[in-house]
Structure formats: structure tokens, C-alpha cells
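Progress narrative, work stream C.
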Amino acid sequence: MSDFRLLIAHRITGFLSPKSRLDIAFGSSLPVGKTEDNPLTAGIEGHKHLHIQFGTGTFDPLLELHYATFFTKRLSFALFTMNKISLYENSKTYKGPFETTSGLSFGYKINKWLAIRSTFANFSQTQALWNNQPDPNSGLISLNGTVAPTFRFKNGLTITPGYRFPIYQRTLSNEGDVFEYGSTFILNVSRAINTSK
């Protein structure tokens, strides 16, 4: 289990044009993910250790912006950025990296129940720090694309399978073992609930 994210969002309709909207969200990560002791020190001392961090152990500010507009009744365009900022180190001297995901997408509504969206996104992660020393197992710049159809049913159920594929990746350090993205299958399922009486 990784850290949770708690966000409060506000939507501005008619932003820049009558057919557009801007969503602004801010919040914090909630440190529930498992953290490890300093693996760099443990490695030097010959102790058993793990490099994988499932969380940062800190409350990290989050900021997200999502802008969407319609060119026609069927064709839509969106810009987005999602950012996580680590401001301090946890009790184990770990300070998480700055992470940002930004990109753009185009959507096309085929009919009332089917639409398709293609997305191009950039993920950038700085190096994390252990006691102010760069972690060679962190730091990544990657570009990826996603194609996903959305099926909308009359009962409010929405199913979106997708395929995400890497286009370009570069690690910030040649010494460590940074996790790189591979091809990924995605499945989102949601159900609209009508609360009006």
C-alpha cells in the first residue's frame, strides 16, 4: 500500500471560453505507506536492506490543475499537471523527490455510449535524499502515451480500459537501479450515483 492522497477541488466553468472548464485541486499525501531505514548506510555496513519505499513518511503538498475544452460537440482537448512536493525528511532521514506529471489529451465522442481518448504525458522525478545524500535509485524523466476507450451505460456505469506505453525514459543516475515504466494495461470502473430527490 502506498501513501494516500487527499485533495480538495474547485471547478471554474467557462474558463477562457464558454465550452471550457478549469479544475484546481490542492491537498496533501497521507503517510500510510511503509518506509525503510537508510539503505545506503546499511549497504556500506553490510546489513540486509531494502531500497523500495512505499511512502515518504511525510505529509507532502499536492497541487493539480486540469483544463478541458470542446472544439466541437465531439472533439475535446485537455491539459493537466499533477505535482507532489516533499518539503522535509522523515524520522529515518529520507526526503522524497519532487514529482510532476504533465500532459495533454484529445478525446473524441463516437456516440452516446462510446468515446476514445489519447494522452501524451511527461513524468519527472528528482532524486530523493538520504540524510542529504542523493539516492542513486531515484530520479527519472519519462514520456508515455495512453489510448483508452470509454464505455458509458444507461445505469450510470462507466468502464474505461486503456493501454499505456513508454516513448522515452532517462534515469538521473547511472549508479543505481531506478524503476522504469513498461507497457501497462489500465482499467477504470466508476458508477454515477444520482442523489437528487
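Work stream C, second folded protein:
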Amino acid sequence: KLRFSALCAGSGPVVLLLHGFPDTPLTFSHQLKALAEAGYRAIAVTLRGYEPGSQPADGDYHAIRMAEDVTTWAKAMETGPVHLVGHDWGANVAYAAAAYAPECFASLATLAVPHPVRFSEAYAANPDQQRRSAYVLEFLTPGFELTVLEDDCSYLERLWRAWSPSWVIPSDLLATMKAAFRQPGVAAAALEYYRQAFDVASPAGQQTAALLSRPIQVPTLGLCGSTDACIPADVFQAAMCASDFPGGLRTAEIARAGHFLQYESPDQVNRLLLEWISAHQP
């Protein structure tokens, strides 16, 4: 049985927030406060594998498994459909969850990472994006988790600084991320997200591919940062196609924000999130 920890604030309609790589729920500190003040119960959950208690014995980190996790959490609220927010890998998980069980979600908001199928197409056709995403190929190297942990996780810190080049990173936020990755098994689990994303042979890999190809029936807000050096705003916008979101799609670009837009520009992000969520009450 897997156990997941979470940061929670407020009471009212539920908003689930899913962090990305390499990150922790603390990335949503500003959103937790703003949502609570606006009358919501905000819950930022630690994703599968990011703590020892949520590492499955079978090592399954396919997106369909995370979609099942999120759907289970949503149903456990017993409040009806909940709102879902995902950043980076949390965005990928959120797309999967919304496709898996759209009836569980009143609204969807994704930050920094566009629709995974369209992004894969953009990556294949865009040499600049291939260079930006070269780290993913490094993650496929057996044992690379040891490199990730070397020199106080300096590799992960370099990713943060590269992806958000103008961000003055709070030291406590960086320290919390590094402490999370130093826990047993976390670095290996986080890399498995990427490794298993390339799996098209196993039943779980095939189920995931089929899941991500489904149209998303949940009303979706996609936010990107104008200075994101991981997935630039133009790549993000091009990969968010209205035809993939029959439930409705809106996108917006956050000025002077990089990949971690929710922490870099919380006022802009919170305003858009609250407008979207309040407009899509179940």
C-alpha cells in the first residue's frame, strides 16, 4: 500500500496540485495560500516515488499509474469533481488523469508543459527543442541517478537555473528539493518517469499511449512562462491544439517568468488560476 504526503491549506471546494521534476509540493506555496484565502481547500500532493512510502514494489511509473493515483485522491475527497493543477511532470500526470476519468475533474490547469503527444511531435521536428531536452536522453543512461545526486545534487540545481535564467531561487526551496532527492530511491524513481515514458511495448506502456491520445473533455487552462528555457512559450503554445481539448481550452503566457512560473510570478499565475477555477465550479 502506497502512502502519499501532502501540503494542505484552507477549506471549501478541493483543488489538487501536482508538482513536477525536480521539485516538491513546496513549489505551490503561493498557490496554497491564495487558494485558501479565496475559499478553497488546496492540496499539493507528493507524487508517486518522490518519498520512500510511495515507491511501488513493482517500480511502475507509467503515466497511467499516476492517473490512477490522482483519480483515487479525487474520489477520496467525496465532494464531487475537484479542480486539478499540474506543473511540469505534474502537468503530464494531470493530462493523463483528465483523460482517464474526466468525470472526476471540474477544471484542469497545466503549467510549463503542453499536451504530451503534441510536444513529442514538436520535439521530433525541432532541433532547438531537441538540444533543450538533451537531459532526457541522459536520464536513459543506466545508473544516471548517481550522477544526479553527486556534489549535493548540483546537476538538479543547474537544471533549475538553466530553465529559469532570471529567477533568484529561494535557498529554502532549493534545499527542500535537494533533501527530497537524497531520500532513498527518489532519484531513481524520478528518472523512471522519463524512462518509462519511452516504453511502448509493455501493457502499461501501451495503455498509457492510448490514454494520452484521448481528447481531454475537462475545461483546460494552459500557462507558460515567456522566458522558459526548457520549453519555450512558442513551442508550448503550438503544442496546445484546441482539437485536443473539446472541453474547452485557453492558454496564456506569463511575462518575465521561466519554467517555474508559479513561484516566479505568483500574482499573475494566481489571478489566472482563480479566474479559471471560479468559472468552472461543478
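The chain is about 45% helix and 15% strand. No further action is required on this item.
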